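Posting this for the archive.
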Amino acid sequence: MKENLERPKSFAESMILVSVGLGLLYWLIDTILHAVLANEPLFLNSLLGIGNGLVWQRLIVIGFFVIFGSHVQYNAIKRHETEKRLYETEDRYRDLVEVSTDAIISTNEQMEVIQWNRAASDLFGYPKELIVGKSVDILIPYKFKEEHRAAFRRFLAADDPHMVGKTIEIEGLRKDGGVRPIELSLSAIKKDGEWTFISIIRETTERRKALEALRESEERYRNLFEDSKDAVMIWTSEYKILGVNQAALEIFGYEISEMIGSDISEVYFDPLDLSKFQMILNQEGSVRSYELTLKKKGDIKIDCLLTATVRRNRDGTILGYQGIIRDVTEQKYNENELKRTLTTLRKAMGGAIQAAAVMVETRDPYTAGHQRRVSSLSRTIGQEIGLSEEQVDGLRMAGMIHDLGKIAIPSDILSKPSKLTEHEYGIIRTHPQLGYDILKNIEFPWPIARMVLEHHEKIDGSGYPQGLKENDILIESRILTVADVVEAIASHRPYRPALGIDKALEEISKNRGVLYDPAVVDVCLRLFEEKGFTFDQ
């Protein structure tokens, strides 16, 4: 190819010299003819054209030769450049065909392969040297061969050219006998009365797998949509309902023809709820378990939980919404009934605990009101220290009966006006365990039995009955301990007069972090010294 390009280029570069040489040759021949014909003896004068006016004629002819040579040279150079660009274009095309990731196959009217790229070898397993010149039939599975040949014949007869210019999905046969799904784009070029067919082919195995996975996913989604026990709804940004499942029809009591195309506001009991919900949904992008009051056919109110998401276009604009609606009317009714039942039970339980407290105080008249006052202070400390409402409620109940075990202590020991003996004090020390034994089999919603058992424990392990330390003792029990000590010291006892609240606060301050929980002591001191708490509240 390089030699073919260099030859015309070399000829073009010499055209002006050739023209000048032809002009000089003409000059010489004209001089000889003129000298012979005119019998001119002075050859030099004839050669130079002196005296006979031939010089201008000869110069004009030479000029024509030069102009002609220049024209020929120009055309030759242009043709050379055009041919060079053509060869370069062909090279680029050949390179593009070779590096293409798609198989590119060209065939003639005899269905013979005349062009075959590397990707075709990878796809079908045939090297180029084995396939070129062979019939393209070798790539067609047996069941499609006759149809393929018939299509070729129809095209050549200009009867059925519909496949050209279109993309079709068929199957291709590999050298190893394997069949692969392929996508084929066919084009045809007619040159010198002969058709050439160019096929661009790509394997579609992965795409088919992806499409199959997509179809399976859509089927699963459709099944989930239809089989869901919760209502599923899809609506536009203009609030028009596009789709509902069977559960939605059952929950709202409509036929599908009544719901599709209707405004979603039809199922809202209060239109303001729709505006509020849509504003939140647009801002957040999704909402989970949003409580709403909706309505079914006939304006019947239903309590629902709505989980919804925004569906957006690629540019981010809102396309519509989809939501899952759960009817919790019955559940909410049952929850309310359960709450009412629990309230009743708690009231009954509170009454029983109050009765037990009265029973203890009847046995020990000198400590009348002690448990109520301890309960009041414990509850207030619990609230200040940050216990939950449930914990505070249990602490209040435990405070009311923390000395329940004293009902098993002889009354003469409980009301003895003098100092107790060591044996009598030992009997008194059994009352936390006795109270626990009475309460342990009762299923309270709070650890009341444990609080009763631990209300005389100290954080250094010097308490009773178990000698527990620090975090081994419930926080509620630690609060109960401080409240019990403060009330006992501040109040009258059979064996001594009341020592007063200052003495009680001095005791817990002195033993803060030793016997008593420091956080509980700090809150208790703050209640009396800064917030004006009194037992008379």
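Residues 54-99 form the longest helix (46 residues). Residues 9 and 345 are 112 Å apart (CA to CA).
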